[in-house]
Structures are given as structure tokens and as C-alpha cells.
């Protein structure tokens, strides 16, 4: 059993997702889901390439980054070979399936249904020339960094 040593329990988290690879998106989704399962208020803020996870045309096609990823334990040149990223992605999806971790679209829907608020970063949306209709229906709003901080008042902010 976890003991918090007399510290105040966490009541609210705001999680920033800025990377669009599978290993960049899933940690934030898992943390948000865990927060909601524990009754902790949760916000997800997608910025820069993290928005790949909430863009309708892209969210079902996230890949494992094999180039420049030291955790892959392979030379960069091997990670760049055709098909290596697809193979790594397939292997990761199989392992996640064994653990009953849902695909991104389903996971985002599940987290949102559990009460997690989902936001896209306005500066990134503008930079990539996106519109509200480009995003999945679970995106609650497109907000500025200042609005993110207002929404996150009293929260622990986590950058994945």
C-alpha cells in the first residue's frame, strides 16, 4: 500500500504532451487515465507534435520513433532503414494489446468520457494552420498558454 507520509494528496494534474510518437503520447494518456481512476481532476494539453494524437487524420497512425531514440538500443542508421519504424510500431502495439491498453483514439475517448478535459495549444494550432474541425470531437477547446495556466490553477503540471 502506498503511503504519502502525511503529504496532501494530489487533487488535480495538468499533463502536457508535446511529442507525436507512440512513446511520446502514451505516457500522458496513461497518467491522465490513472488520475481519473483515482478521482484526480485531469487536463491534457497537446502542443507542437503532440497534437498528432488528437488530429483526426493522424491519431490512428502514430509510430514508434526509431531514429535518434537511445532506448531502441540500435545504431541510428539501422533505425533509419525502411520498415524498421513500422516493425517497431507493430511490436509495440502487440505488447500494448496484451496489457489491454487501447489504441489512441479509443483511449482518448475513454479518458474524456471519464471527465478529463482535452485542450489543443492555440499557438501550435495557428503555426500548423489547423482548425477546430481537424481535431477529434473530444477536444474541448483550443486555448492559449495563459489559459492553460488559468485552467491548471492548483494543479501539478506534468510535462511528458
- Tally of separate domains: 1
What share of the residues lie within helices?
A: 25-40%
Task: Give me the strand/helix succession.
Answer: EHEHHHEHEHE
The portion of residues forming beta strands comes to 15-25%
Walk across the major sheet and give the strand order: 4-3-2-1-5
**CATH fold-level topology:** Hypothetical Protein Ychn, Chain: A
Q: Which parts are unreliable, with pLDDT below 50 for 5 consecutive residues or more?
A: none
CATH class: Alpha Beta
**Termini Cα gap:** 26 Å
What is the radius of gyration? 17 Å
**What is the CATH homology-level superfamily?**
DsrEFH-like
Mean pLDDT comes to: 90
Question: So how many helices?
Answer: 6
Number of strands: 5
CATH architecture: 3-Layer(aba) Sandwich
Structural class of the helix and strand makeup? alpha/beta
Q: How would you sum up the global shape?
A: globular
Major sheet details: 5 strands, parallel
Structure explained in plain terms:
With 160 residues, the chain is an alpha/beta fold. It has a single domain, classed as DsrEFH-like (Hypothetical Protein Ychn, Chain: A, 3-Layer(aba) Sandwich). It is built from six helices and five strands. Helix 1 (22-37) runs parallel beside helix 4. The two termini are 26 Å apart. The model has no long low-confidence stretch (mean pLDDT 90).
Please specify the SSE layout and strand pairing.
Layout (H helix, E strand, L loop, with lengths): L11 E6 L4 H16 L3 E6 L29 H4 L4 H15 L5 H10 L3 E5 H6 L13 E3 L1 H7 L4 E4 L1
Parallel strand pairs: 1-2, 1-5, 2-3, 3-4
